[in-house]
Design goal:
By secondary structure, the protein is an alpha+beta fold. It has three domains: 43 residues, no CATH class; 105 residues, Endonuclease III, domain 1 (Orthogonal Bundle); 35 residues, no CATH class. It contains eight helices and nine strands. The protein has a four-stranded mixed β-sheet with strand order 3-4-5-6, with helices on both faces. Strands 7-8-9 form a three-stranded antiparallel β-sheet, with no helix packed on it. Strands 1-2 form a two-stranded antiparallel ribbon. Helix 6 crosses helix 7.
Length: 240
């Protein structure tokens, strides 16, 4: 839209069933080799961005797309200490591990969901693919969590997904806020005289003096911004 908005043109819809000439040209045998080569190079570049690998088996019609993310999770399970502790507790009657089970290949599952070990880099890669890829198009925290929980599981998963989405810069700039608009500012009235309106605060956590003072009481006049600093002790009450 940004490109074509500067041109004086009209866009008309052309049904696909009426596009006979273009379909006939695209199906010519002489163009199949060239288009297949260009398409194969484009797919390779797109698959590399999504951490997917293309395994060619003969012609272009027999392309098999396999994800390496599951293999990374399985490899991370074998090198994780927490996964070993869960496997050791599977044989007993511990109610905390009743939902876990191990398949014939030694892969740990939580019900029907693959367990992701505590690998921050691997979890970051999973969240990036579920949120930043072209097929996910920056979903919200609830939608992203519901998509991930169908196949994966780890502790505090929903909290990490919500934090990840809240830190996405594109979502902050593009997505509209659904909160009610804030009202008008309610400024404080201007005092008519000195020391009619004051504010008080304390500076604590200081090293003790010879007389046992470890805090400072600060009293500020809101009109003149004049301040008084008084040494006090942490145990002082409000009436003192």
């Amino acid at each position: 839209m940004e490109l074509i908005k500067d041109y004086d043109l009209e866009i008309h819809y052309h049904p696909g069933k009426a596009n006979v000439v273009a379909d006939a040209l695209s199906r010519k045998a002489s163009c199949s080799c060239v288009s297949a080569t260009v398409l194969h190079e484009t797919l390779c570049q797109e698959m590399e961005k999504m951490n997917l690998a293309i395994v060619s088996e003969g012609t272009l019609a027999n392309i098999t797309i396999t994800s390496t993310l599951r293999d990374q999770i399985v490899a991370a399970q074998k090198n994780d200490v927490g996964m070993d502790k869960i496997r050791q507790r599977l044989g007993g009657n511990d109610p905390q591990v009743q939902c876990f089970h191990q398949d014939s290949e030694g892969v740990l599952w939580f019900k029907n969901r693959l367990v992701v070990p505590k690998d921050l880099g691997l979890r970051k890669q999973i969240l990036d693919e579920a949120h930043l890829s072209r097929y996910s198009i920056h979903p919200g925290s609830n939608k992203m969590y519901q998509d991930l929980r169908q196949r994966l599981w780890w502790t505090r998963m929903k909290r990490e997904v919500a934090q990840y989405v809240s830190e996405c810069d594109i979502c902050k700039r593009v997505k509209a806020s659904h909160l009610r608009p804030a009202g008008l500012l309610q400024p404080l009235t201007i005092p008519s005289g000195k020391w009619e309106d004051i504010s008080m605060d304390f500076i604590v956590g200081l090293p003790k003096t010879a007389k046992g003072y470890d805090s400072i009481r600060v009293v500020v006049d809101r009109l003149t911004k004049s301040a008084h600093f008084t040494p006090v002790k942490t145990g002082y009450k409000s009436h003192q």
